[in-house]
Amino acid sequence: MSGISDGASAWNYRLLAHHQLYGYGGLGEGIGLQLTADGRRILWLAHESAPKNFSALDVTDPRSPRLITQTELPHSQVRSNSLEVHGQVMAVAYQTARPGLTPAGFELFDISSPEEPRSISFYDCSGPHSRGVHQLWFADGEFVHLAAGAPDVVPRDQRDDQFYRIIDVRDPSRPREVGRWWLPGTLEGDAADPPTRIREPFGTGFRAHNTNVYPQQPDRAYVGYIDGGFVILDISDKARPKPIVHWNHSPPFKGFTHTVLPLFDRKLLVVTDESVMDGGEDWPKLVWIFEHGIEDRPIPIATCPAPPVDVFAKRGGRFGAHNIHENLPGPLSWRSEDLLVGAFFNAGLRAYDISDPYRPREIAWFVPPAPAGSPAGAIQINDVFVDERGVTYAVDRFCGGVYILEAEF
Question: Of the candidates 159, 297, 143, 131, which has an alpha carbon nearest to the alpha carbon of residue 212?
Fold first, then answer.
């Protein structure tokens, strides 16, 4: 444990606690919250890279988090970038450093005893052209929605190796695929022509990233498709997903669409792009607001105010948008259609009021100083989760661990 209040830049956020996970504070895009049978709150965290797989903090008292579990990966060439919690079950993604390695897939864990997570099953996505699973969504306890490779496909370009897959886990001991979709033209055997690449050095591939499916509309999947923009899929027949919307702003922008968050009551979409280059080289990476009154005609109407480029771009590491709090289903997640909270790497954590969607305004930020030993030389806030009490958990990509905050807005 260490305090970071000295030197932090904050407006309308108050630091409650900071935990660096005893030297293994490099965290990915997986944050899940569990309520145990005995009433404890357990925060599960996916690690950005080996040697650690996932960690668990008891955050029943958010001012005094306590590490209770930290597990190991089998080798240095695999990472567990993503996890999701549903009840007493957790799904964890495994992605290898290059195609052909194992383990590449996802694993289900029984976490009813969080000090001793127990493996239920492993779903293998490995193959000669597969790196496994980068991101997963597990919100209903029945299906896991993946950005993943597969053993039976060959991408035309290796950068296009992960696509959308739907896995039925209603029998958690026997996961099985029920559907898949990829951007036409990206796999060998496609009738469609290959898509036009973003100019070098900005193109990183036509792959699925976040694969969000919400109980308000369980027959739709909202998929960020990296250099392919975003896609909304009709998954009413899970065996045959069909695209309803495909929107892409790159080129002229520089790709890497990450998250699509539907605001159902307001008929809006929030879409983020991810910065993937240091020093602001791929700027701008923005948070977009779309009017979505007609399902197949999303219209961009605004972007959230970006942190000042002259202050942050050359501060160290990445600068720009990444992920946002995704209004996860379930009793432990805060949900709002008027406020957004997002991770901006070296510009920290940012909150926005979008009650007027044409004029989003910034209402809070939290930018801690660089963690000691960070290779970026600056904070790299990588992901954020807000619980139903408004307690905010933000994580650093390299060694900063988790920052636990209270919003003052």
Answer: 143
